[in-house]
Write a structure and sequence with these properties.
CATH architecture of the largest domain: 3-Layer(aba) Sandwich
Largest sheet: 5 strands, parallel
Number of strands: 9
Number of domains: 2
Oligomer: single chain
Strand content: 15-25%
Bound molecules: adenine
CATH topology of the largest domain: Alpha/beta knot
Order of helices and strands: EHEEEHEHEHEHEEHHH
Structural class: alpha/beta
Helix content: 25-40%
Protein backbone atom coordinates (compact mmCIF):
# COMPACT_ATOMS: atom_id res chain seq x y z
CA UNK A 1 0.00 0.00 0.00
CA UNK A 2 1.25 3.48 -0.91
CA UNK A 3 0.20 6.26 1.42
CA UNK A 4 0.85 9.89 0.54
CA UNK A 5 0.16 12.68 3.00
CA UNK A 6 -0.27 16.25 1.80
CA UNK A 7 0.47 18.45 4.77
CA UNK A 8 1.99 21.77 5.78
CA UNK A 9 3.63 20.00 8.76
CA UNK A 10 5.33 16.79 7.56
CA UNK A 11 7.59 16.83 10.62
CA UNK A 12 4.58 15.99 12.83
CA UNK A 13 4.41 12.50 11.31
CA UNK A 14 7.42 11.12 13.21
CA UNK A 15 4.82 9.42 15.42
CA UNK A 16 4.45 6.86 12.62
CA UNK A 17 8.16 5.96 12.75
CA UNK A 18 7.67 3.74 15.79
CA UNK A 19 6.42 0.30 16.66
CA UNK A 20 4.18 -1.58 14.26
CA UNK A 21 3.80 1.10 11.57
CA UNK A 22 7.59 1.55 11.48
CA UNK A 23 8.02 -2.20 11.01
CA UNK A 24 5.41 -2.25 8.24
CA UNK A 25 7.53 0.37 6.45
CA UNK A 26 10.79 -1.52 7.01
CA UNK A 27 9.20 -4.70 5.68
CA UNK A 28 7.88 -2.75 2.65
CA UNK A 29 4.27 -3.61 3.35
CA UNK A 30 3.56 0.11 3.15
CA UNK A 31 5.34 3.10 1.71
CA UNK A 32 4.67 6.44 3.37
CA UNK A 33 5.39 9.66 1.46
CA UNK A 34 4.92 13.24 2.58
CA UNK A 35 4.33 16.23 0.34
CA UNK A 36 4.41 19.74 1.74
CA UNK A 37 1.95 21.47 -0.57
CA UNK A 38 3.42 24.84 0.36
CA UNK A 39 6.24 23.82 -2.01
CA UNK A 40 3.69 24.06 -4.85
CA UNK A 41 2.47 27.57 -4.04
CA UNK A 42 3.06 29.97 -6.94
CA UNK A 43 2.80 32.88 -4.49
CA UNK A 44 6.24 34.39 -4.02
CA UNK A 45 5.86 34.29 -0.24
CA UNK A 46 4.70 30.66 -0.35
CA UNK A 47 1.24 31.57 0.85
CA UNK A 48 -1.35 28.82 0.86
CA UNK A 49 -4.27 30.56 2.58
CA UNK A 50 -6.59 33.50 2.07
CA UNK A 51 -9.67 35.08 3.64
CA UNK A 52 -13.14 33.75 2.78
CA UNK A 53 -15.39 35.40 0.20
CA UNK A 54 -18.50 36.71 1.91
CA UNK A 55 -16.55 37.55 5.06
CA UNK A 56 -16.23 35.68 8.31
CA UNK A 57 -13.46 34.65 10.66
CA UNK A 58 -10.45 32.57 9.76
CA UNK A 59 -8.50 31.72 6.67
CA UNK A 60 -9.02 29.08 4.01
CA UNK A 61 -6.56 26.94 2.07
CA UNK A 62 -6.53 28.18 -1.52
CA UNK A 63 -7.03 25.80 -4.45
CA UNK A 64 -3.81 26.35 -6.44
CA UNK A 65 -1.16 24.67 -4.21
CA UNK A 66 -3.40 21.67 -3.50
CA UNK A 67 -4.49 21.18 -7.13
CA UNK A 68 -0.87 21.37 -8.30
CA UNK A 69 0.48 19.10 -5.56
CA UNK A 70 -2.09 16.44 -6.46
CA UNK A 71 -1.44 16.87 -10.20
CA UNK A 72 2.24 16.12 -9.51
CA UNK A 73 1.46 12.73 -7.91
CA UNK A 74 1.74 9.66 -10.11
CA UNK A 75 -1.60 8.72 -11.74
CA UNK A 76 -3.13 5.85 -9.82
CA UNK A 77 -6.39 4.34 -8.76
CA UNK A 78 -6.51 6.12 -5.45
CA UNK A 79 -8.69 7.55 -2.77
CA UNK A 80 -8.08 11.16 -1.88
CA UNK A 81 -9.18 11.63 1.69
CA UNK A 82 -9.71 15.11 3.13
CA UNK A 83 -9.56 15.37 6.91
CA UNK A 84 -12.33 17.64 8.11
CA UNK A 85 -14.71 17.82 11.06
CA UNK A 86 -17.56 18.10 8.53
CA UNK A 87 -16.78 14.66 7.04
CA UNK A 88 -18.20 11.22 7.65
CA UNK A 89 -17.03 9.87 11.00
CA UNK A 90 -14.08 7.47 10.82
CA UNK A 91 -14.65 4.00 12.24
CA UNK A 92 -13.32 0.45 12.16
CA UNK A 93 -15.44 -0.41 9.12
CA UNK A 94 -13.86 2.41 7.12
CA UNK A 95 -10.37 1.31 8.25
CA UNK A 96 -11.22 -2.20 7.00
CA UNK A 97 -12.39 -0.80 3.67
CA UNK A 98 -9.26 1.33 3.24
CA UNK A 99 -7.00 -1.61 4.15
CA UNK A 100 -8.00 -3.25 0.83
CA UNK A 101 -6.81 -0.27 -1.25
CA UNK A 102 -3.37 0.12 -2.84
CA UNK A 103 -3.16 3.95 -2.90
CA UNK A 104 -4.37 6.34 -0.22
CA UNK A 105 -3.80 10.10 -0.26
CA UNK A 106 -4.53 12.09 2.91
CA UNK A 107 -5.07 15.81 2.62
CA UNK A 108 -4.57 17.64 5.92
CA UNK A 109 -6.37 20.93 6.37
CA UNK A 110 -5.56 23.85 8.60
CA UNK A 111 -7.20 27.15 9.47
CA UNK A 112 -10.94 27.07 8.67
CA UNK A 113 -10.45 24.33 6.08
CA UNK A 114 -10.31 24.11 2.29
CA UNK A 115 -11.80 26.14 -0.51
CA UNK A 116 -14.87 24.12 -1.56
CA UNK A 117 -13.48 23.54 -5.08
CA UNK A 118 -10.82 21.27 -3.57
CA UNK A 119 -13.58 19.10 -2.12
CA UNK A 120 -15.65 19.19 -5.29
CA UNK A 121 -12.92 18.40 -7.81
CA UNK A 122 -10.23 16.38 -6.04
CA UNK A 123 -11.51 14.66 -2.94
CA UNK A 124 -13.14 11.21 -2.93
CA UNK A 125 -13.72 10.91 0.84
CA UNK A 126 -14.31 13.57 3.49
CA UNK A 127 -13.63 12.07 6.87
CA UNK A 128 -13.69 13.28 10.47
CA UNK A 129 -11.94 11.71 13.44
CA UNK A 130 -14.85 12.56 15.73
CA UNK A 131 -17.25 15.21 16.88
CA UNK A 132 -14.65 17.75 17.96
CA UNK A 133 -12.44 20.26 16.19
CA UNK A 134 -8.66 19.83 15.94
CA UNK A 135 -6.19 22.54 14.97
CA UNK A 136 -5.40 20.58 11.80
CA UNK A 137 -5.90 17.27 10.05
CA UNK A 138 -2.47 15.79 10.89
CA UNK A 139 -3.37 14.05 14.14
CA UNK A 140 -6.52 12.70 12.51
CA UNK A 141 -4.54 11.40 9.49
CA UNK A 142 -1.97 9.72 11.74
CA UNK A 143 -4.72 8.02 13.73
CA UNK A 144 -6.47 6.79 10.59
CA UNK A 145 -3.22 5.57 9.01
CA UNK A 146 -2.36 3.65 12.19
CA UNK A 147 -5.81 2.05 12.37
CA UNK A 148 -5.68 1.08 8.67
CA UNK A 149 -2.10 -0.21 8.51
CA UNK A 150 -2.51 -2.61 11.44
CA UNK A 151 -5.24 -4.39 9.46
CA UNK A 152 -2.97 -5.18 6.49
CA UNK A 153 -2.00 -8.84 6.07
CA UNK A 154 0.95 -9.90 8.28
CA UNK A 155 1.42 -6.46 9.86
CA UNK A 156 0.36 -7.49 13.36
CA UNK A 157 1.84 -10.98 13.26
CA UNK A 158 0.13 -14.12 14.48
CA UNK A 159 0.38 -13.37 18.19
CA UNK A 160 -1.69 -10.18 17.95
CA UNK A 161 -4.68 -10.91 15.78
CA UNK A 162 -7.21 -8.17 15.16
CA UNK A 163 -10.23 -10.40 14.58
CA UNK A 164 -11.49 -10.01 18.17
CA UNK A 165 -10.78 -6.27 18.37
CA UNK A 166 -13.42 -3.99 19.74
CA UNK A 167 -15.72 -2.97 16.86
CA UNK A 168 -14.58 -5.78 14.51
CA UNK A 169 -17.22 -7.96 16.13
CA UNK A 170 -19.68 -5.07 16.44
CA UNK A 171 -19.18 -5.09 20.23
CA UNK A 172 -16.61 -3.64 22.61
CA UNK A 173 -13.97 -6.17 23.53
CA UNK A 174 -14.20 -8.22 26.76
CA UNK A 175 -11.70 -7.58 29.63
CA UNK A 176 -8.28 -9.27 29.55
CA UNK A 177 -6.07 -10.51 32.39
CA UNK A 178 -2.53 -11.86 32.55
CA UNK A 179 -0.27 -13.21 35.32
CA UNK A 180 -0.26 -13.12 38.29
CA UNK A 181 -3.64 -14.67 39.15
CA UNK A 182 -3.58 -12.74 42.44
CA UNK A 183 -2.02 -9.28 42.31
CA UNK A 184 -2.08 -7.72 45.79
CA UNK A 185 -5.42 -9.29 46.49
CA UNK A 186 -6.90 -8.34 43.11
CA UNK A 187 -7.84 -11.67 41.61
CA UNK A 188 -8.47 -12.84 38.08
CA UNK A 189 -12.00 -14.22 37.50
CA UNK A 190 -12.04 -17.98 38.28
CA UNK A 191 -13.52 -18.91 34.93
CA UNK A 192 -10.35 -17.80 33.10
CA UNK A 193 -8.28 -20.22 35.18
CA UNK A 194 -10.72 -23.11 34.72
CA UNK A 195 -9.31 -24.43 31.43
CA UNK A 196 -12.92 -24.88 30.27
CA UNK A 197 -12.88 -23.23 26.86
CA UNK A 198 -16.62 -23.30 26.32
CA UNK A 199 -17.22 -21.55 29.65
CA UNK A 200 -14.48 -19.03 28.87
CA UNK A 201 -16.05 -18.24 25.48
CA UNK A 202 -19.46 -17.73 27.11
CA UNK A 203 -17.99 -15.51 29.82
CA UNK A 204 -16.13 -13.39 27.24
CA UNK A 205 -19.20 -13.00 25.07
CA UNK A 206 -21.28 -11.95 28.08
CA UNK A 207 -18.62 -9.48 29.24
CA UNK A 208 -18.48 -7.95 25.77
CA UNK A 209 -22.26 -7.63 25.71
CA UNK A 210 -22.39 -6.14 29.22
CA UNK A 211 -19.64 -3.63 28.49
CA UNK A 212 -21.26 -2.58 25.22
CA UNK A 213 -24.66 -2.19 26.90
CA UNK A 214 -23.14 0.00 29.63
CA UNK A 215 -20.79 2.12 27.54
CA UNK A 216 -21.99 2.09 23.93
CA UNK A 217 -25.60 0.92 23.75
CA UNK A 218 -25.81 2.49 20.27
CA UNK A 219 -23.53 -0.30 18.95
CA UNK A 220 -26.03 -2.99 19.93
CA UNK A 221 -28.48 -1.82 17.29
CA UNK A 222 -26.05 -2.83 14.50
CA UNK A 223 -24.43 -5.84 16.19
CA UNK A 224 -25.02 -9.40 15.02
CA UNK A 225 -26.75 -10.85 18.11
CA UNK A 226 -27.92 -14.42 18.70
CA UNK A 227 -31.04 -15.36 20.63
CA UNK A 228 -28.77 -16.28 23.59
CA UNK A 229 -27.12 -12.83 23.41
CA UNK A 230 -30.50 -11.13 23.48
CA UNK A 231 -31.66 -13.19 26.44
CA UNK A 232 -28.47 -12.35 28.34
CA UNK A 233 -28.85 -8.63 27.60
CA UNK A 234 -32.46 -8.75 28.71
CA UNK A 235 -31.46 -10.46 31.97
CA UNK A 236 -28.84 -7.84 32.85
CA UNK A 237 -30.78 -4.79 31.72
CA UNK A 238 -33.64 -6.08 33.89
CA UNK A 239 -31.22 -6.18 36.83
CA UNK A 240 -29.85 -2.70 36.24
CA UNK A 241 -33.40 -1.29 36.23
CA UNK A 242 -34.04 -2.54 39.79
N1 LIG B 1 -9.52 18.78 11.30
C1 LIG B 1 -10.01 19.52 12.31
N2 LIG B 1 -10.84 18.80 13.08
C2 LIG B 1 -10.87 17.55 12.54
C3 LIG B 1 -11.55 16.36 12.87
N3 LIG B 1 -12.38 16.26 13.90
N4 LIG B 1 -11.35 15.28 12.08
C4 LIG B 1 -10.53 15.37 11.01
N5 LIG B 1 -9.88 16.46 10.66
C5 LIG B 1 -10.03 17.56 11.41
Amino acid sequence: MNITVLTLFPEMFTALNHSIVARAQEEKRIELNYVNFRDYSTNRHGRVDDSPYGGGAGMLLTPQPVFDAIAALPEANRRIIALTPTGRRFDQRLAEEWSTETELVFLCGHYEGFDQRIHDELVTDEVSLGDFVLTGGELAAMTMIDATVRLLPDVLGKAASHEDDSFSTGLLEYPHYTRPADFRGLVVPDVLLSGNHARIETWRREQALKRTLERRPDLLEQADLSETDRRYLQSISGLSND
